[in-house]
Structure formats: structure tokens, C-alpha cells
Design brief:
This protein is an all-beta fold. 0% of the residues lie in helices and 60% in strands. The protein is built from no helices and eleven strands. It has strands at 2-7, 10-12, 18-26, 30-39, 46-51, 57-59, 67-72, 77-82, 91-102, 105-110, 114-118. The strands form two sheets. Strands 2, 4, 5, 6, 9, 10 and 11 form a seven-stranded mixed sheet that branches. A four-stranded antiparallel sheet has the order 1-3-8-7, with no helix packed on it. It is elongated. The N and C termini lie far apart (40 Å).
């Protein structure tokens, strides 16, 4: 069994910062891509930032220059540093990972989500 557990969400004022974490645990051979998605009420889930084991990083245009994705491969943990937060960043943030669980078996896992609310 593999689990992804997010933490670090909360209520913050516009212009503030939050740091999200996503820890992967369980039967993990290796991890390829690890991503952050978000979903606001009434909207589809959207990709916020992604990183691969090769170090490739991509961001949604809406968060470029404000958010930074990083990972600690030794701890199987993904981070999202969010600065200059705006009300439109309010959403549930989800971690997703492509994990090798057996020699020739890869699976996609999602975390349960963490709420981020940006409001004065």
C-alpha cells in the first residue's frame, strides 16, 4: 500500500505565504513525476506545478514567479512554496505521484487534499 499525505494548508491573507508538503509512504521502489494540482469550487482540477525524477519542472502560467515546487527524494516528500498568494489561489490542493510499486508496475496515487484559503 502507498499513501500520499498532504499538510500545510490553511487560511492566509492576500500577499501571504504557505508551504505545502506531501509525504509518500509504503511499498515504494521509486518515484517518477510528482505534481501539485488544485481544485476550486465549481472548477475542474488543474495542474499547478510538476517535477520529474530527472529534474524537469513546469508551472501553470497563473503561478509562475510566485510558487516553487521542490522535492526531497531521500524523504519521498514533495513541497510547494506559495508566495504572494491571491484570493484566486483559494482551492483544495492535491498531490499526485507516479510511483513504481513493483519491478514492472507503475501506478498513479493521489493525496486526500489540503484546503488553502486566501482571504482578508
Amino acid at each position: 500500500q502507498v499513501q500520499l499525505v498532504e499538510s500545510g494548508g490553511g487560511l492566509v491573507q492576500p500577499g501571504g505565504s504557505l508551504r505545502l508538503s506531501c509525504a509518500a509512504s509504503g511499498s515504494i521502489f521509486s518515484i517518477n513525476a510528482m505534481d501539485w494540482y488544485r481544485q476550486a469550487p465549481g472548477n475542474q482540477r488543474e495542474l499547478v506545478a510538476q517535477t520529474t525524477s530527472a529534474g524537469v519542472i513546469n508551472y501553470a502560467d497563473s503561478v509562475k514567479g510566485r510558487f516553487t515546487i521542490s522535492r526531497d527524494s531521500a524523504k519521498n516528500t514533495l513541497y510547494l512554496q506559495m508566495n504572494s498568494l491571491k484570493p484566486e489561489d483559494t482551492a483544495v490542493y492535491f498531490c499526485r505521484a507516479m510511483i513504481r510499486v513493483q519491478r514492472d508496475l507503475w501506478r498513479v496515487y493521489w493525496g486526500q487534499g489540503t484546503q488553502v484559503t486566501v482571504s482578508s
